[in-house]
Amino acid sequence: MIGTLIEKESINNYKIIAAEDNKVEELCGKLKDAQRLGNEFKSKVTIVFNTEDGPMRIETTVWSLTDKYIQIKSGVLIPLSSIISVEY
Known about the structure:
alpha+beta, SH3 type barrels, 4-stranded mixed β-sheet, 3-stranded antiparallel β-sheet, 1 helix, 7 strands
């Protein structure tokens, strides 16, 4: 699996940038499923996103999804344009 595994609490230590390939449309269904898994079943998903330091990977619950961001614990927002993959 790509990306360095980091704690979700340390996301703010990284500068999140857009992924090389914009996969927003491709990942839309998976992100909606991830939100449902988080809200209804408290299940975690693995999200890989791009930073200036390269891809980072977290295991987290997706709390909400907008047209530009996903929100995880503590109000942390991850831009959809930075997401490389979503696995559950």
